[in-house]
Amino acid sequence: MRRSIPLAICLIMGIVMMVQFFVPHPISVGFYDLTTKWIRIVSAFALVLGVGSLILYHLDRLQRRRAGWVYSIVTLVALVVTAVIGLVWGVKPGSPLQEVIFKNMLVPLNASMFAILAFYMASAAYRAFRARTKEAALLLIAAFIVMLGMVPVGAAIWGKLPEVAEWILSVPNMAAKRAIVFGVALGAIATSLKVILGIERGWLGGGK
Amino acid sequence: MSSTVVLLWLVLSTVAPPVPFVQDTPNDAGKSITIRWQLAPELTPDFVLLRRSCERESTQVVATLGAGDNGYIDENVCDGVRYSYQLGVVLGADTVWGEPSQWVVSKPQWFNWARLNILIAMILFFALVIYFIEHAKAGRHLFVRRIAGLDAVEEAVGRATEMGKPIVYVPGLGSVADIATIASLNILGEVAKKTAQYDSALLVPNRDPIVYTVAREVVKEAYTRAGRPDAFKPDNIFYVTSEQFAYAAAVDGLMVREKPATNFFLGTFWAESLILAETGATTGAIQIAGTDSVFQLPFFITACDYTLIGEELYAASAYLSREPLLLGSLKGQDMGKLVILVVIVLGSALLLLSALPGLKFFQEVSNFFNVSGINLTGTGLPLG
């Protein structure tokens, strides 16, 4: 019963949504809109489970004084403070939640994390471009040509270099990309079919 | 003065606007009429489009169009009401009206014929997958090529046991509606089964609350099936945050603190992929990654020991479990790719042939393969 009802819902809804894709009638469009609204509502309820897990996890870390337990205090305090500010002063533009927490704390923190990416890219590139194998050497040469072709100095060295760089990007690179995308698309369809038919049951927590 | 009037009358009589061709917009939800007209080469002025309603006995100018326009989609009509359209040429302060069109009625359709090719392809692909599933059910052997990243799973879990360190499994940042996340959760089940057998710690930080709930059930089920329900620790599967970079920072912190022996990054990833993979690499862990995002794959290939490229991620659950039903669908997928390859070659040949004079028919055949089912026409946009 615990499995058969979700499987039946999945099968029916899967087939209905497939049919819906081919039916442009307002009834079909209306049904699709209603379904997406339902998904949003169900997702909102699931957040309660997530917040519950977060609180329990950090309380456990505090109780057991695990490594980095001080950060658990920061997390729990931030959770409570943000929720209180949001509930008392609202979430509209100009509210403390928007001005203080979002604009002056969350946005700079996110920007900092994103900026770190540049350093990680440099270190990853260093590792990738060590020509230890034939493939790595090929990657190094291709990357060197592309990077040089994208900057003015490349064109100054040789006028045709930007065209060569563009060709590398739009022909061999695009061919490989499209091959991956074809595989991904077919894989996604096959996985969807397996889920709809109940062959793939991982999303139910596995088992038969 | 009189000569000017005569001249104007002569000009107006030679620029009679065309009779518009009207039809109910095909393959739509109704409330839309498509109007087209053939322009005479000598006509260069602006047009006005007049709509006449039969039932309501009203006339209304619905659009002013430029000389280059030869069509318009009127999306401000009612279904079941008869309409007629008339074009007028604007010449200074005067408007010359052409003949009105036939009456037309808008109505919603029950089938989008522009998506017929998608339906045929879908039926063909489903038939292939189901055929090979039945093939596998019959007990016939199906060959599946080696996937190094998946062969390394056993070794990676064993290494964690030897070192006495945990395994970090990141199921991506996607929702449970993402196919890559579903594939990742299937792999998680297999990995959890192995960690239960080897008695290793498995940490699963989650970004999505629904994925967290499912992941916890998957791991619990895997431990039960491995005969080790007592070894399952629900606290090891936890929700972190829905914020992309906050999640990345939390997982980075977890990897730096716990120094895991193995990291799995499988699922949907965005800009944080390299932040996670590079941090994991600095801790000295074996890393197995996989995603269906072509933009994140280069980062994973660079920073991880093994990478499942695109569809390999979807194939993983079949590969690891060796279940005939799953292997059958995998073969169906491969056959589907073969069909696509044949269609590409055939389509290219048809396009080449259609370039020859007298063989234009092949252009029509190759047009059938165009995915034109998605209606991109906006409200009242002229069809230029």
Characteristic key phrases:
heterodimer, A: 208 residues, mainly alpha, 0% strand, extended, B: 384 residues, alpha/beta, six-stranded parallel sheet, 14 strands, disordered C terminus
Describe the structure.
The complex is a heterodimer of chains A (208) and B (384). Chain A is mainly α. In chain A, helix 1 packs across helix 7, helix 2 packs across helix 3 and helix 5 packs across helix 7. The two termini of chain A are 12 Å apart. Chain B is elongated, with a radius of gyration of 31 Å. The two termini of chain B are 39 Å apart. The C terminus of chain B is likely disordered. Chains A and B meet through helix 1, helix 2, helix 4 and helix 7 of A and helix 2, helix 4, helix 5, helix 6 and helix 7 of B.
Break the fold down into its secondary structure elements and pairings.
The complex is a heterodimer of chains A (208) and B (384).
Chain A: H1 4-22, H2 26-64, H3 69-89, H4 96-128, H5 134-149, H6 152-157, H7 161-197
Helix pairs in contact in A: 1-7, 2-3, 5-7
Chain B: H1 2-14, E1 21-24, E2 33-36, E3 46-53, E4 58-65, E5 71-74, E6 82-91, E7 94-97, E8 104-105, H2 116-137, H3 148-163, E9 167-170, H4 179-198, E10 202-206, H5 209-225, E11 237-239, H6 244-258, E12 262-266, H7 273-282, E13 286-291, H8 297-303, E14 306-309, H9 311-321, H10 324-354, H11 361-367
